[in-house]
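Kindly review this protein for my students:
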Amino acid sequence: QVQLVESGGGLVQPGGSLRLSCAASRSIFSTNNLGWYRQAPGKERAWVASDIRGGNTFYSDSVKGRFTFSRDNAKNTVYLQMYNLKLEDTAVYYCNTAPVTLPWGQGTQVTVSS
């Protein structure tokens, strides 16, 4: 069974940085586009960033220029480096394929607060 395990979240002040990681239980990365998604309190889950099998990357307008998507196929891990975090980035962050095809993991909480 494929599992997605996100980690790296935490509490950070506005303007701070965090790096999220997502590990999979199987080697899905080499054959799938992958993405990061987030769900803010009271809102639906939304796409944040994704790639095309380790090639081009794409970002939502709200994070473009602040977040960087990357992957390490050897480690079956994708990352989301987040800079200049804003209050509105507070959410539970998830990874999945892009488009979504796998069960959701538990996510990792990112809280931006002063």
About this structure: The beta strands are 4-7, 10-12, 18-24, 34-39, 46-51, 57-59, 67-72, 77-82, 91-97, 108-112. The chain has a mean pLDDT of 92.
